[in-house]
TrEMBL record:
This is Arabinose efflux permease, MFS family. It is found in: Cell membrane. It comes from the Bacteria. It comes from Streptoalloteichus tenebrarius (strain ATCC 17920 / DSM 40477 / JCM 4838 / CBS 697.72 / NBRC 16177 / NCIMB 11028 / NRRL B-12390 / A12253. 1 / ISP 5477). Keywords: Cell membrane, Membrane, Transmembrane, Transmembrane helix, Transport.
C-alpha cells in the first residue's frame, strides 16, 4: 500500500493530481471565495511549472546550457514532484490543509526567487528541485481541500476543477512567460518575481480560510513511501500503460525541447514562437479534458492513441519543409492525445468507490507517468548532444507512434478477450 493517494476525480487530469488518503472533514463547505482561492492555487502552481519552457532558449544562449542540460533542468522538477507525491501526499490529512498549504506556498515563492536569480545550470536544477517538492506537497493539499469543500448543490464541481485547473494552469503559465519574453525587460527575472508575489499573496489569503480537516497523529509515519499496485488495478494498468507512456513521453519532449525544435524549423522566427508550441499542447489538452468529460474512458484512450499517429506525422512533416504551422498542428494533436489518454486511463484504472486501493492506484499511475515524462526527456537531451535535434525528433516521433500502435493493439486484444 502507498501512503500517497487520492480521491482522484472521476476524470483525472494530465498533470499532478491530489494524492492522499481522505481525512474526515471538519465540515463540508462550498463557500465560493474559499473554493475559488483553492482552485487558483492549483492554477498558479501549474502555471509556475510551465513558465520555464519559453525561457529555455534564453538559458541556452546566456548560460551556455546544452540540450542535455535543459532536459535535466526540466526532469529535475518532475522527479522531485514525484518524490513529494510519494512521501507527503497524506501529510495534510494529519496536519490540516491550511498549514500544509501555507508552508508549501512559502517554499514555492522561495523557489521562484531562486529561479529569478539563477546564473547557471546548477542553481536552475536546485531551484527546480525545490519547486517540484513544494508543488507536490501543495497540489495534494489543495486537491484535498477542493474535495472537502464540495458543494452538495453542485455535485462534481470539485472533480471537474481538479481535472481542468492543472492543464489550464500550464497553458496560462507558458502563455504568460512567452509574452514576457517578447515584451518585458529581463523576462527570466520578471516572470518568477511575479509568481513569487502571487504565491505569497495566496499563502496569506489561505491562512484566513476555515480549516476543513481534523488534525490527527501519524504525520511522520505517513512520509514513508510504500508503493504497490492493487490486484484489481494490475489488469487495467497493463492495458492502458503503453498509451500512458507514449503521451507523457511525447509531452516531455515538447515541454523540454519544443522551443529548440521551433528554432530548428524556423531559425528566424520570433523567440516567443518557441514557447508557444507547448502552450498549444497544454491549451488543447485543457479543451480535450473539458470536451471529453462525459465520454466513455475506453473510447477516450483509443481516440487519444489514434491522435498520436497524425501528431507524429505532422512533426516529421514540419521538419521536412512543412514549417511552423504544421509543427503547431502536430503539437495541438499531441495535446488532444495527452488530455484524452490521461483522463481516460485514470478513469479506467480507478476502482469503484466501494472498493479499496484508490490511493495506491493513483500513486502507481503517477509513478509511471512522471517517469515516462522525465527519463525519455533526459535520453532525448543526450541523443541531441550526439546526433542532433533533427535525428532525435525523428526517433521520438517514431517511438511515440509505435507505442501508440502497441497500445491500440492491446486495447483491441482485451476487447476481443472479454
Amino acid at each position: 500500500m502507498i501512503r500517497v493517494a487520492s480521491d482522484a476525480p472521476a476524470s483525472g487530469p494530465p498533470a499532478p493530481a491530489p494524492c492522499r488518503l481522505r481525512a474526515a472533514p471538519v465540515r463540508a463547505t462550498g463557500h465560493p471565495a474559499s473554493f475559488v482561492l483553492t482552485a487558483s492555487i492549483l492554477v498558479a502552481l501549474l502555471a509556475a511549472s510551465g513558465a520555464p519552457t519559453p525561457l529555455y532558449p534564453l538559458y541556452q544562449d546566456h548560460m551556455g546550457l546544452s540540450a542535455l542540460d535543459v532536459t535535466v533542468v526540466f526532469s529535475a522538477y518532475s522527479l522531485a514532484l514525484l518524490l513529494a507525491l510519494l512521501t507527503t501526499g497524506a501529510l495534510s490529512d494529519h496536519l490540516g490543509r491550511r498549514p500544509v498549504l501555507v508552508g508549501a506556498l512559502v517554499v514555492e515563492a522561495a523557489a521562484m526567487l531562486l529561479l529569478a536569480s539563477a546564473d547557471g545550470g546548477g542553481p536552475l536544477i536546485a531551484a527546480r528541485v525545490l519547486q517540484g517538492m513544494a508543488t507536490g506537497v501543495a497540489t495534494s493539499a489543495a486537491g484535498a481541500a477542493l474535495l472537502d469543500r464540495e458543494d452538495p448543490r453542485r455535485p462534481g464541481r470539485s472533480a471537474l476543477t481538479n481535472s481542468i485547473a492543472p492543464v489550464a494552469g500550464m497553458a496560462a503559465g507558458v502563455l504568460a512567460a512567452t509574452l514576457l519574453v517578447r515584451f518585458a525587460p529581463a523576462p527570466a527575472v520578471t516572470v518568477f518575481v511575479l509568481l513569487a508575489v502571487v504565491f505569497v499573496a495566496q499563502a496569506i489569503a489561505i491562512s484566513f480560510t476555515t480549516e476543513t480537516a481534523h488534525r490527527r497523529p501519524g504525520a511522520l509515519r505517513s512520509l514513508r513511501p510504500r508503493l504497490s499496485v492493487p490486484p484489481t488495478t494490475r489488469r487495467a494498468l497493463s492495458v492502458v500503460g503503453t498509451g500512458v507512456v507514449a503521451i507523457w513521453a511525447l509531452s516531455g519532449f515538447y515541454s523540454s525541447l519544443g522551443p529548440a525544435l521551433v528554432r530548428l524549423v524556423a531559425p528566424h522566427a520570433p523567440q516567443a514562437a518557441g514557447g508557444m508550441i507547448f502552450f498549444v499542447l497544454s491549451a488543447t489538452a485543457t479543451l480535450a479534458v473539458w470536451m471529453l468529460r462525459r465520454t466513455a474512458p475506453r473510447a477516450m484512450v483509443i481516440g487519444g492513441c489514434l491522435s498520436v499517429l497524425p501528431a507524429a506525422i505532422l512533426m516529421l512533416v514540419g521538419l521536412h519543409g512543412g514549417g511552423l504551422p504544421t509543427l503547431y498542428c502536430g503539437a495541438a494533436l499531441a495535446g488532444v492525445a495527452f488530455g484524452a489518454v490521461s483522463q481516460g486511463a485514470l478513469r479506467m484504472i480507478l476502482p469503484s468507490r466501494d472498493e479499496q486501493g484508490g490511493a495506491a492506484t493513483v500513486a502507481s499511475y503517477y509513478v509511471l507517468s512522471y517517469l515516462s515524462m522525465s527519463l525519455p526527456a533526459i535520453a532525448a537531451g543526450a541523443a541531441t548532444q550526439h546526433y542532433g535535434l533533427g535525428t532525435t525528433s525523428h526517433a521520438c516521433a517514431v517511438a511515440a507512434a509505435l507505442l501508440s500502435v502497441a497500445a491500440l493493439a492491446v486495447l483491441a486484444a482485451t476487447r476481443r478477450g472479454r
